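Hey team,

Filing this mostly as a record. A colleague (T.K.) asked me to run one chain through the structure pipeline before their review meeting, and I want the input and output archived in the tracker in case anyone asks later how it was produced. No errors, nothing strange. Just documentation.

Input sequence:
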Amino acid sequence: MTRPPTAAQRRVIDAADPVTGRVRGTETQLAALVKRGLAFRHPRPPHDHFLTPAGHRIREGEEPGAAGVGAGAAGAGPAQTGAGGAAGTGPGGVGGAAGVGAAAVAARAAGAGGRASGGAEAGGAGGVFAARVGGEESAPVSRVARVREVHSAWQGLLELRRMTNPDAATDRPCGWERTHLVQAAALALEAAGHAPETGDSPGYRVRATPQPDAVAVHAPDAEALRTCAITLEGAGWQAGEYTEPRTRVRYLLASPRRV
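Output structure:
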């Protein structure tokens, strides 16, 4: 059993940003957290420090059973930039600005996201992230952890756009998104704060359509549908409202923007 952090170290951990995991402290405190595998120093300027998955578990009151995950855990860490990030203007990777492990996290999201309506919880340090497409039976147990995981996955996807789009554009979906339409659209919605449908709780639902380059997005009311359209358009998608002929239900038909 790894010994628990000192009182001073615990104060630094508790004060970390709940989403990005960014920590502040003296050089000695931060170095001690890095040595114990509870934080890592980002390799790119400004070289901020962030909690590892083990550090996040301690912050959330869980046992530090996996504290051996050290600085190499950056691939499961936070993002500094992009939507809701800290310093900087470019897209962030899940370990911080522009790069560390970003493509790996987006690819990991792709692997789990293939379960269109299956379990959508991320599995923590060693688990697999899955976009919540709506219709799941229950919400994630830890809302704080889920927010962090979604934030990291979205930042990783922005970095994947930067690395794979010919012009390095981050405002337009990349090839992975065009082959994983349901998961990509769902991630954009959840990252923007929209709630997916869960059990008896209303929310968005993203579903495949007969059209190979479009998904259908359903929402509980007209206002929610409108805000989903705004979010998707801001994430690089084209979205228009349509009416289902038989039920007269309104829905969005959304497809990735190409230019």
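Quick notes for T.K.: DSSP finds eight helices and nine strands in the chain. The helical segments are 7-14, 27-35, 53-59, 102-113, 143-164, 175-179, 181-191, 222-234.
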